[in-house]
């Protein structure tokens, strides 16, 4: 059993460790779970990941309870290829999960996505919880940024939403569908030509009278005009236009939800990939400010060279383990470091080449997991 220490990591360490355990078909013991958080141990959304993984694999688990700081997980999968003892095989099927709180639906999806590479048949999982909540990607980031980007490298996945779940009640419901997939090496080092932006603004029905979704979107567009000023000062744009930042798509949605809330996601399309930026509505925060916050994050991205946003940068490391490749990240965050340490614990040593302005290229060229 491989022993892993989460003293200096949070929930992503737990999710990625369980994902790698299944992919490697290797038992793990997680100690000091979420050890660097004020409230260490498994919270509802982390427990949901443990329980879901266990159900999919029919795994043997100990420590699957709230606040547990030690978890043992043995996937015990059969080998899909008798000639290759290192290849695990996971059956598909249909499952339903209720996180029970406003715990993040999208973070649970993040843990499940890589499992498409060991599926024998399609897998469908419907999850009830928070679809657009703090400290996790909003649902439209998963649907409009992450899945399309991974789809370019062979991941076959889709996400359907029945209703939104905002803090504090959650109650949202979405379904992730995965099909058996084979990934190509990830190559995301150069950004390529900027193509344009897509904006996805959502309000709960309780906020429709305040026109929140429209105001969020307009606030973002107002702030994104600053990109055009940079182009005028020497960028690649012509005649002071927004350097190719044409508005390719704009969506305003009013959604059924047990709680009032709102979310905005900005997607930046460019030659080699996609980047995403988001902000959530808060009580007392003007809707226009929500849009401005997301646009500010997009503007910071446009000033650099990385082809992915900071959140996607660290989330892609597990896919390097599956297929190999290179990713230029905007900065080496604590999540990037924790992910590299976790991969190293599984015998997958990544290389990191630091560059100017905090950017770095993370690569894994040696034999990947699959």
Automatic annotation (TrEMBL):
Active site per UniProt: 335
The RNA 3'-terminal phosphate cyclase insert domain, residue ranges: 189-302
Keyword Nucleotide-binding: yes
GO biological process, one term: RNA processing
Annotated binding of ATP, by residue: 110
EC number(s) stated in the UniProt entry for this protein: 6.5.1.4
Localization, UniProt: Cytoplasm
Main location: cytoplasm
Alphabetical UniProt keywords: ATP-binding, Cytoplasm, Ligase, Nucleotide-binding
GO molecular function: ATP binding; RNA-3'-phosphate cyclase activity
Example of a GO cellular component annotation carried by this entry: cytoplasm
InterPro entries linked: RNA3'-term_phos_cycl_insert, RNA3'_phos_cyclase_dom, RNA3'_phos_cyclase_dom_sf, RNA3'_term_phos_cyc, RNA3'_term_phos_cyc_type_1, RNA3'P_cycl/enolpyr_Trfase_a/b, RPTC_insert
Superkingdom: Archaea
Enzyme class: ligase
Database matches in Gene3D superfamilies: RNA 3'-terminal phosphate cyclase domain, RNA 3'-terminal phosphate cyclase, insert domain
Function: Catalyzes the conversion of 3'-phosphate to a 2',3'-cyclic phosphodiester at the end of RNA. The mechanism of action of the enzyme occurs in 3 steps: (A) adenylation of the enzyme by ATP; (B) transfer of adenylate to an RNA-N3'P to produce RNA-N3'PP5'A; (C) and attack of the adjacent 2'-hydroxyl on the 3'-phosphorus in the diester linkage to produce the cyclic end product. The biological role of this enzyme is unknown but it is likely to function in some aspects of cellular RNA processing.
Protein family according to the UniProt entry: Belongs to the RNA 3'-terminal cyclase family. Type 1 subfamily.
Name used for this protein in its record: RNA 3'-terminal phosphate cyclase
Name of the encoding gene: rtcA
């Amino acid at each position: 059993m491989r022993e892993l220490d989460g003293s200096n990591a949070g929930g992503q360490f737990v999710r990625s460790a369980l994902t790698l355990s299944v992919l490697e078909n290797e038992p793990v013991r997680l100690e000091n779970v979420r050890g660097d958080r004020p409230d260490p141990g498994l919270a509802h959304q982390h427990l949901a990941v443990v329980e879901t993984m266990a159900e999919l694999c029919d795994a043997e688990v100990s420590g699957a309870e709230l606040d547990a700081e030690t978890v043992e997980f043995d996937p015990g999968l059969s080998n899909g290829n008798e000639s290759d003892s290192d290849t695990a095989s996971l059956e598909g099927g249909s499952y339903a999960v209720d996180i029970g709180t406003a715990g993040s639906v999208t973070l649970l999806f993040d843990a499940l996505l890589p499992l498409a590479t060991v599926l024998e048949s399609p897998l469908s999982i419907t999850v009830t919880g928070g679809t657009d909540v703090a400290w996790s990607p909003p649902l439209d980031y998963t649907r409009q940024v992450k899945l399309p980007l991974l789809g370019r490298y062979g991941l076959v996945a889709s996400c359907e939403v029945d209703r939104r779940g905002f803090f504090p009640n959650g109650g949202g419901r979405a379904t992730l569908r995965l099909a058996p997939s084979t990934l190509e090496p990830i190559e995301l080092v150069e950004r390529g030509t900027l193509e344009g932006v897509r904006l996805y603004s959502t309000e709960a029905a309780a906020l429709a009278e305040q026109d929140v979704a429209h105001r969020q979107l307009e606030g973002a567009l107002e702030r994104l005009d600053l990109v055009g000023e940079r182009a005028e000062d020497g960028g690649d744009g012509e005649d002071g236009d927004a350097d190719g930042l044409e508005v390719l798509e704009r969506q305003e949605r009013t959604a059924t939800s047990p709680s009032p809330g709102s979310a905005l996601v900005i997607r930046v399309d460019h030659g080699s990939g996609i980047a995403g930026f988001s902000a959530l509505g808060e009580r007392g925060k003007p809707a226009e400010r929500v849009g401005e916050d997301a646009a500010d994050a997009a503007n910071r991205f446009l000033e650099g060279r990385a082809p992915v946003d900071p959140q996607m940068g660290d989330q892609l490391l597990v896919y390097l383990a599956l297929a190999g490749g290179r990713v230029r990240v905007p900065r080496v965050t604590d999540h990037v470091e924790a992910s590299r340490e976790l991969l190293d614990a599984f015998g997958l040593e990544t290389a990191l080449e630091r560059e100017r302005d905090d950017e770095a290229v993370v690569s894994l060229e040696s034999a990947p997991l699959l």
